[in-house]
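Reminder: ligand-aware prediction takes two inputs, not one.
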Amino acid sequence: MLAGMSQWLTLSRAAHLLGISRVALQKRIRDGELPSFDGMVDAADLLRSWPQLDLEDSGSFEKTRAIREDAFARRLRERVLPSQEALAQRLFTQGQELAELQRTLTRYHALFEALRARLDAAPAPAMEDLARLLDEGLARAISEPVAGADAAALDAMLRVMSAHVTVKPSGREFFVEGSETLLKAALRAGLSPNYGCGNGNCGLCKARVVSGEARTVAPSDYLFSEAEKAQNHVLMCTCTALSSDLVLEVLEADAPEDIPEQRIVAKVRRIDALSADVMRVHLQTPRSSRLRFLAGQRVTLGIRAGVRDGSDVHGEFPVASCPCDDRNLIFHISRGDRRAASADFSRCVFDDWIKVGDDVSVWGPWGSFVLEKASVRPLVFVAVDDGFAPVNSLIEHAIAVDAAEAITLYWASAQPGGQYLPNQCRAWAEALDEFSYRPLATDELPAALAADPALAYSEVYLAGAAAVVEPLAAALLAAGVPAAQIHVEGL
Ligand code: FES
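Here is what comes back for the chain with FE2/S2 (inorganic) cluster:
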């Protein structure tokens, strides 16, 4: 490689390499700390900005690893390798690129030799200067290390270990680790592709391969039409990426109305107390019928007749977990739930009427308390007591999709220490530079929000008892925060 040649990386590859969010990288570019050209950054500039880009020693890498389980060193340690076929294919592609580069260098070399011979043959003293310049330039090119070569080498390794997928028409991107399916990788990255059964039967997760190669890794009963085969359609739930780069045309859900109503029977996997007044209920769906929902939405939970006094008991609760794990659904159930219609279900949880292994009907999802997909504003979440449940789902999703350059969480409680998952909130704040956590008492909340100038240009999400959050929303509106930026949980 000649000195001075640039090693360009896309923003997502650079962020993946560093183990930081894409928005953090974009902020450095906007602040003038990192040059970029046409959506790419030079590996040498990256090394200058992050001189600690030595994977195991990188502070930012280590911090973010706790949040993003797919970070580079962890994958290496756990040896989550792609299949032999994918490895062979990707190495072959890199080998081809390397061979092409070698051919180019050979041609440059031949050109150099021819030029040098002509200069030797020319008698003029000016030609001697030119010959010396060429010789010295070549000696430097061969002896000096190439700036950014380390980052480029790491990037080349990443390209073998994980495939980069670009989704059309949205332009969203995600990485496929090991031999995971395209659907699993897309959900993990916070995307909302269309899908149903998750196991190759319904055909709802169909996607068209625009470029690159995908390979089937799980059996499927779905039959493609001849036209679909000719257009390179694949099932995202049964295929993985074979090539390092893949472009897919995918149908994505952009709004709550794009998600169909579903009815599923899930099993209770675990119930544990988060505090004296809040229980965490973990439900797991069957493999073949997972719950498709958007972060922040709620569902109806029901217990079959006969569990309690021979009658059905229902309740409507926000899902507290991220849609990226569509089989494991977490709920935070409060004692004497503030929503009257859900109080009976809550009693069943606190009175031990619901036990591990029981069936619970889940239907939904409902509600439009979801992230504004098109917005790039900072995110402010205001949770009051168990209003933290949908906020938890929204924050996990926002982190997965790099949705914002700054996230602030106000969590207010009427009870001292009523923030029942404080360690998790502190872990977010410690792991992510752009995250700030402010626990406070409910009566401190109006003054704290009034004193926060960032609210005027942020998307503000409020969740909790209507008696508390509705006056807060009205106060924000009166203070000049545009109505379109204020989102209130619908219960
Ligand atoms: S989700 Fe049903 S076939 Fe993929």
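Confidence is low (pLDDT under 50) at residues 55-79. The CA atoms of residues 38 and 187 lie 28 Å apart. We will return to this case in the review session.
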